[in-house]
Amino acid sequence: MTLLEITDAKTQLLDANDEIFAKAQAEKRSMTDEEKKKVQENNLKMREYELQEESLSFKDDKGRQVRNTGQQYIIPKEKFSLMRTIQDFLDSKTINEVARDVNTLGQQEFRRAGLSYSGNLILPAEVRADILAGTATQGQEIVAEEKKAILPPLVDKLILAKAGATFLTGLVGNVSIPSYSGTTVAWKSEVAGADDGAGTFGEVEFSPKRLTAKLDVSKLFLAQDGVGAERLLLDNIAGAVARKLESTTLGIVVGSATQPQGMGYKITVGTDTKAAAVVPTHALMVAMETEVDTANALADSLAYITNSAGRGMLKSIAKGSTADNIMICENNLVNGYPLLVSNSVAGSAGSDGAGELIVFGNWKDLCICQWGGYDITVDPYSLASENQVRIVINAYFDVKGLRGELATDVHGSVDTDPDEYAYSFASLAIKAS
Predict the structure, then answer these.
(1) Rounded to the nearest 10 degrees, how much is the dihedral formed by the CA atoms of 233, 239, 244, 245?
(2) Contact criterion met (CB below 8 Å) for 74 and 216
(3) What are residue 394's DSSP bridge partners?
(4) Which terminus, N or C, of the chain has the lesser number of Cβ atoms within 10 Å?
(5) Contacts of residue 15, Cβ cutoff 8 Å, sequence gap at least 6
């Protein structure tokens, strides 16, 4: 076992003892003989781990004697390689010490978040590497490096992050974030009574929902050992997760206990708010902006998001008179606001399924939450006949708006449809003329 694995095993034994003590205390009784026996067994096992820890902590990654600094573990300078680790799994080899430490960190992160895991390899969202500094004969000590992601940061792959969305990681259990609908004010005469201008406080609750993505990789590619191939594999995994997260958020599905709601759900299948796709006009774009402005959300990270087809329409339809030759979208701007493009944005939007989704809003009010890291399963069998390996990634996310639900919008006077993005966003399905 590595030092990190020993530390993790000791922590689990301590947690098991704490659960026994807490149960007996809650039931206001003494521990049973069976419980006492279990605690004693756990304590003996912990002592064994401590002896192993003392022995290992005096050796660095090259077997040299070093001073015991009292740190919990030492991670060797060798870099973690996902490709090498996958190849070890395929060859039925024991994964190396670095991969085992990374796997242990990932398991700890999932347990802290209250999530289960089942993959061959559990990658943490971030890892802190400890390196040995100085000379062994002169008091070598451990220096903590800053936390770094093993996978490329997910935010680099998300158009939502580029738009300014709020991204939260390292969460534990369900998360409730206070929401506020905004404050209203009005002019009054000198002696007229003031209206109650206070906004409405509430809570937006986020809960982990399992996102799963898959990546098929040739065995020939996995046999490569270059830095470029490793980076390409990691980029592809991060990209697969980002595409799935984005296509759901910018899709048309209804929210449930297992998936976030799509931002195009209301206009596509909503009871009160569904609307057929329309040819985009300058007036419709202004109406979307006004909807957000009316909810006092016209601030911070404002932008439009659509797909390539949607942008093509906006660039080919005149803003006013055709003779003016000024299009709705000029230089990737609509009415001065950036137009961002992702092909993860839903087509087949609108009640007739004939439109491309376009969303305008304050993207800072969009919150993306992540629990734990990445649960990776290496499947060498499903595509064995094609000489490929399937990599299945599981991660846990939730996405909602931070201002709660909206009672009315530009599509109708009453809105009873569930809405996880209201106040800060307006959606439309657009089609070619």
Answers:
(1) 130
(2) no
(3) 212, 375
(4) C
(5) none
